[in-house]
Amino acid sequence: MLVNGGAVAGPYAPMSYEPNPYGVPAGQPPVQAAPGGAAWIASPGTNQPLFAAPFNADPAWGPPVVGAGPGEFWCWQLMPKGLIYHSYQAGVHEPRLAIVAESERESHQSFWDGTLGGRVGLLRYGTNDIFFPHGWELDVEAAAMVRLTFDSIRDFETADYRVGVPLTYGVDNWQFKFAIYHLSSHLGDEFAIAHPGSLADRINYVRDSLVFGASYFPQPFMRLYAETGWCFHFDGGAQPWEFQFGTELSKAGPTGLQGTPFLAINAHLREDVDFGGDINTEAGWLWRNETGQLMRAGVQYFNGKSSQYQTFNNFEQQIGFGLWYDF
What we know:
12-stranded antiparallel β-barrel; mainly beta; two-stranded antiparallel sheet; 327 residues; Outer membrane phospholipase (ompla), Chain C
């Protein structure tokens, strides 16, 4: 039968690890022999490697399905595991789950900066490798970046909302992204109540942008990236052009419980602040699971124009501790 978009498997039967009568290439594990009285659809030497157990062996759920392991063959995948183009770890407007407790040195205030969002793959035509898949992929992303005061009141001050649809492509050590996204910034209701008249000063900061990004791994532990964005509709002080570039350093592959150190640096330049912007640096400890998702804990240092676009022209210097879950 055909499984996982084209891998060829023998008829379902308990797994047997008898030597392959057709022979296998040097260094390759033996391939399951066909059960007695059954014929292979294709020569076992051409089969894709299989996991050792079926995904589904309960007759109530239909015929058993055996899944193909990572391979170089291309196939259609609905809701694929992993992503071709990952979000930037030190990008403050990337979709993720995060909370950062920080002190802002210019205003002598402390804040909670939280992000509630995520990014998932919808459809891929390419390989099913988890960490470096090749092919084309359509994703969807959404996030809310909120700021709360770090006191007993926990006033909701501002929030930026972002939603986007990235189309990505991966080949060798390169990944490319073309995306469209909408971002809007809003003043918090609790801040407006506590500061009468502040609604008269709020801005309708809006960006509807087209984005092109490129990411490259010169070594498995090092990622370099750059991105250009252009607004086709903007308001509230926003201007058309923005640029991002940066690097990420951490041990490649699943880390297990012990984790590994990481360092991430992101620079973001925007036309609306005369091509100034901000530099954000994060460092600490990272855990990566078998699907490429990350959990991180560490320190953050932000220097530049505000990370909240209601106050996009204000200068901020933040230092804090954060927890991040990246997709």
